[in-house]
Amino acid sequence: MDAAPTPVAITPPSASVNPFVHRAAWQDARDACVADPGAFHGDIASREIHWFEPKAGSHGAWITRHPEGRWHGFDARTGDPVDPSLPQSYRPWSRGLDDSEAPFYRWFSDALTNACFNEVDRHVLAGHGAEAALWFEGDRWDQSQDGGRGTPVVSYSVSRKQLMLEVARCALALRHLGLKTGDRIAINMP
Q: Exposed, middle or buried by CB within 10 Å (0-12, 13-18, 19+), for 143?
C-alpha cells in the first residue's frame, strides 16, 4: 500500500459571489428562464463550462465564452491556449433545450463536454494547480485525538494538479487493462 503523501501547502479557491443581490435581479433572471430556458441556461453554460470544439486548435479544443463574448480555451492535445475566431453568438450546440419529446428533455443537443476536464484539467491549465481539489480522510479513526472527539489517522490535502496526475495514472491503468471508449465498468468503492 502506498504511504500517504506529505501534506503540502495549498491555496484555497476564491469564493464565487451571487450575482443576484436584489429581488428585482432575481425576478428578471427567472422571467428570462421561463421565457426561453435553452437560451437562459445556454448563456450560463457557455461561460461556465468548457465545450469541445473539433475545429478549434490543432487537434480540437476545449473552449468557453469569456464574459466579454470572445471564445477561448485550450488545445485538446497540447493544452496550449487557443483563441478561436468564433462569433459571439456561436454556441457549441444545435439547441439549448430540446423539448420535442417532452417529458424527455435534452440539453445542449450535439454538444460535447467532459466533467473531468471541467472539474480538474481546466483549472490546472489556467494556472490554479496548487488549489485544493479535495481533502482526503482515511477511514481509520484515532479516538484519543482532539479532546476525545477523534480524528482520522491519515488525512491530507490533494491539489488540483495532484488529482489530475492521479486521474491520468488511473486512465493509463484502465487502458493497459484493455478498456477503450464506449466500454462500461463498475468499481466497488468502500
A: exposed
Side chain identity at residue 41, one-letter code = H
**Residue 128 CB coordination number (10 Å):** 16
Strands (E), the chain: 51-53, 61-65, 71-75, 81-82, 95-98, 106-109, 132-137, 141-142, 151-152, 155-159
How crowded is residue 80: how many other Cβ atoms within 10 Å of its Cβ? 11
How many angstroms separate the CA atoms of 155 and 181, rounded? 34
Residue 63 confidence (pLDDT) above 60: yes
Cα–chain center distance at 111 = 15
Domain range annotation of the chain: 23-113, 114-190
Prior bond of 7 cis (ω within 30°): no
Q: Where are the alpha helices (DSSP H) in 36-148?
A: 37-48, 115-116, 122-125
d(CA 81, CA 57): 9
Query: What pTM was computed for the model?
Result: 0.78
Quick: pLDDT tens for 13-60.
667 778 788 999 999 999 999 999 999 999 999 999 999 999 998 889
The H-assigned helical ranges of 12-158 are: 23-35, 37-48, 115-116, 122-125
How confident is the prediction for the chain on average, in pLDDT? 90
